[in-house]
Amino acid sequence: MNKITNLFKIKYPIIQGGMIWCSGWELASAVSNAGGLGLIGSGSMYPDILREHIKKCKAATDKPFGVNVPLLYPQTDEHIKIIIEEGVKIVFTSAGNPKKYTSFLKESGITVVHVVANVKFAKKCEEAGVDAIVAEGFEAGGHNGFEETTTMALIPQVRRVVSIPLIAAGGIGTGRTMLAAFALGADGVQIGSRFVASIESSAHPEFKKAVIEAGDGNTKLTLKKLVPVRLVRNEFFNRINDAETGGATREELIEMLGKGRAKLGMFGGDLQEGELEIGQISGLIDEIKPAGRIIEEIVKEYNFAKTEICKASV
Fold it and tell me: Percent helix, strand and coil across the chain, each rounded to 5?
C-alpha cells in the first residue's frame, strides 16, 4: 500500500477523473470494482440526478467511490447536502476556493481532495486542511490552468512545497505515464481521457469514436479569456478560436459559447458544433475497452516498465 491506496482504501493508486457528461455511476462503479477509485462527475447533473447516480453506484459496488464537485456551479450547496445525506465518504473539489467546503465536509467524516494547476493553490489546499491534492498539468482535457504548466514541470514543483499525498493528472493514460508520474514525486494518478473511451463511459458513441481517432495535435487549449479549456479541433473550436485570436471581448466569447455546448458535443454527439473536451493523451488511445480492462492493462504495463528500469539501472 502507498499513501493513496491507504487514504482511499483501494487496491491501485488510480483515480478516474470526474468528467462532466462522461462520468456517471456505471463508469465510477466499474473503476471501483476493478481496484481504482471511481468518481461520479456532478458538474453536469441536477441535484436529483446526482442522488440517483449515487444510489445506483452504491448498489453496483461495495468498494469506495467518490463524487467530483466543481465549485463554480450554482447547485453546489445542494450537491454537498445530497453527498452527505447519501453517505458518500470521498469528495474531490475543483474550480474554486478549497477553504469554502473543506472543513464542513471533513466534519461529516468525508475525505477531501482538491484539484489545482499551480504551486500557489497547492499551498492553499494544504493550509485549508484537504487530505490530498490533484496537480493537473496543461496536457489535461477540459478546463485547465491559466499557467499552462506541463505535468512534468508541475508535479515536482508541487511535491517540493506540500507534504500531503499528491495525485498527478494531465497526460496520463498508460502504465508508463503512471510510472513517470511516480518518478516525479506523485503518490497516485488521476486519469480522465482514457476512461472517456471506455464502454461504461456515458459519453456519446460518436464522441468516443472521435477520441480514438484523434491524433497528435488534434487538441488545443482555447477560451483563455474565459476559462482555458482543451478541446478537439472542430467547426465550433475553429470559430471561437478565430474570434479569440482576432480580439473578441470576453462578453462576445460568452455569447458565442452559449449554453449547453459541452452537453451537445460529449453527450449529444454533435462533433462539429459541440464542445469536445479531451486531453493530449487521446493520441495514444485507439480502442474502446471496458474500464476494468483499462486498469488491468495500465497496472500490467506499469509493473513491466518498472522492472525494465530496475534491470537497466543494474
Answer: 45, 15, 40
